[in-house]
């Protein structure tokens, strides 16, 4: 019988099988198997069969030194915040995002800063020519340091380059363009991406080099290639935001060296990316005053409170069935809130279209925005503007009760800092409210209390 030359891989979890299957036995996802040629090379042997003796031995947790876990500032406070305090030497970081969002730009800017501060940087691009990178670099101003560049796609050559240049920081742009010669499938395929990442992981750990991998994102919003890629690296960052809008959000979805809920905000300008240190002010820029259907809320992005504007348009339905549209919030959540308004506040929206939008292109999944969404809809329905200096947050339950949320004092403080004088919040959140913040708080218990406040400005 002829020797089998292809195997099947699960795109989600990397499960390997000799035949195609509809459902992956490993992760239970459907239709995730792709066919790929068999790898010719053998994986490196284990420690035991290479030397006869095991090299590693167990140590006590207390004896593990943490002193070498220092961090290098990247020159961008927002990036440091997302990484959990700075770049960890020897870590492997995956940066994902839509094309044109600014992945190459941010890494070039970090490279510029690092070389100017005594770190050796190797920037390998498999996508752009050196001239193209030079043109981009020219927009960023004078480069004080020496960034070593290479336009290369063969991992074997890249390995040699790393050995010769001995960088402390290395960028691979992007992992989908890199290939190993002894793996016969095309660059970007499951086995190539997996193999290359594996080798780069070993390089990073053995030589204490920080490696940033750029990853392409598929239509579904995941890094293209196997899901295992995300499991292999230390940190996964996603760059998101509307390409046509100027701001960009950098989010950590996995971080072995820090919290994952931190968000960094950047603005794309003529000379590359700049940090947005006060996102609240930025998000509320251009808010219409004295208009109905708009209210302000405060969400927590990681440990940082951020103010957002929520807009609602309530218009009479032209044809029988009312339309509901949600941009930036969950569609089902909007339907639920509309049902609560109808039942608990006694406002019938059956003949009205309702459109809700979070301005600035933000997406929020926190239930604390419920109250502001409801206030915007009701303000739109009655055509009564909410108070200019009002802000509201709180989760709404199915009986119309306003439920407590986390970090209420922090949110109130941020609102006060930006000049808001009336904070509508859940009554239970008042329990731990510091004295100096109590004056501007208006606690509410039910959705009806909140509606009453709209007419009393
Ligand atoms: P880029 O970093 O090439 O994106 P990615 O690597 O994620 O695909 O982003 C480039 C986009 O940003 C491109 O559309 C041009 C724009 N840009 C600016 O607006 N200003 C600048 O200074 C730079 C360098 C790029
Ligand atoms: Mg790029």
Using only C-alpha atoms, the radius of gyration works out to: 26 Å
Number of helices: 13
Supply the CATH superfamily name of the largest domain: P-loop containing nucleotide triphosphate hydrolases
CATH top level class name of the largest domain = Alpha Beta
Largest sheet: 9 strands, mixed
| Beta-strand fraction estimate | 15-25%
Question: What is the general shape?
Answer: globular
Bound molecules: thymidine-5'-diphosphate, magnesium ion
CATH fold assignment of the largest domain: Rossmann fold
Uncertain runs:
44-52
- Number of structural domains: 3
Q: What order do the strands of the largest sheet run in, or round the barrel if closed?
A: 6-5-7-8-4-9-10-11-12
State the total count of DSSP E strands: 21
Helix content: 25-40%
Q: Separation of termini?
A: 84 Å
**Content-based structural category:** alpha/beta
């Amino acid at each position: 019988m002829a020797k089998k030359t292809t195997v099947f891989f699960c795109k989600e979890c990397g499960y390997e099988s000799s035949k195609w299957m509809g459902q992956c036995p490993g992760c239970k996802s459907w239709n995730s198997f792709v066919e790929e040629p068999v790898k010719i090379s053998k994986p490196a042997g284990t420690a035991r069969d290479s030397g006869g003796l095991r090299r590693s031995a167990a140590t006590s947790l207390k004896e593990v030194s943490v002193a070498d876990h220092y961090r290098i500032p990247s020159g961008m406070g927002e990036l440091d915040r997302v990484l959990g305090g700075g770049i960890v030497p020897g870590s492997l970081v995956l940066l994902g995002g839509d094309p044109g969002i600014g992945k190459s730009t941010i890494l070039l800017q970090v490279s510029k800063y690092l070389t100017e501060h005594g770190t050796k940087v190797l920037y390998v691009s498999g996508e752009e020519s050196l001239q193209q990178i030079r043109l981009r670099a020219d927009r960023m101003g004078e480069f004080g340091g020496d960034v070593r560049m290479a336009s290369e796609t063969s991992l074997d050559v890249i390995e040699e380059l790393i050995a010769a240049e001995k960088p402390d920081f290395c960028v691979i742009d992007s992992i989908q363009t890199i290939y190993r010669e002894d793996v016969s499938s095309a660059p970007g395929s499951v086995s190539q991406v997996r193999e290359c990442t594996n080798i780069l992981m070993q390089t990073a750990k053995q030589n204490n080099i920080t490696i940033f991998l750029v990853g392409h994102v598929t239509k579904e919003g995941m890094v293209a290639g196997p899901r295992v890629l995300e499991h292999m690296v230390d940190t996964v960052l996603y760059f998101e935001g509307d390409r046509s809008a100027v701001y960009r959000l950098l989010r950590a979805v996995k971080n072995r060296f820090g919290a994952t809920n931190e968000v960094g905000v950047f603005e794309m300008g003529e000379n590359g990316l700049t940090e947005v240190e006060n996102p609240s002010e930025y998000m509320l820029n251009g808010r219409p005053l004295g208009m109905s259907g708009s209210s302000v809320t405060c969400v927590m992005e990681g440990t940082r409170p951020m103010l957002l504007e929520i807009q609602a348009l309530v218009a009479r339905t032209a044809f029988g069935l009312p339309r509901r549209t949600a941009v930036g919030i969950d569609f089902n959540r909007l339907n639920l809130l509309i049902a609560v308004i109808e039942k608990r506040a006694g406002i019938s929206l059956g003949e009205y279209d309702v459109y809700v939008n979070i301005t600035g292109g933000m997406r929020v999944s926190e239930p604390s925005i419920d109250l502001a969404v409801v206030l915007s809809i009701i303000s739109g329905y009655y055509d009564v503007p909410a108070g200019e200096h009002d802000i509201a947050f709180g989760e709404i339950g199915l009986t119309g009760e306003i439920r407590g949320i986390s970090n209420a004092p922090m949110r109130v403080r941020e609102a006060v800092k930006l000049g808001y004088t009336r904070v509508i919040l859940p009554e239970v959140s008042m329990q731990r409210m510091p004295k100096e913040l109590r004056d501007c708080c208006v606690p509410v218990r039910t959705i009806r209390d909140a509606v009453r406040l709209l007419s009393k400005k």
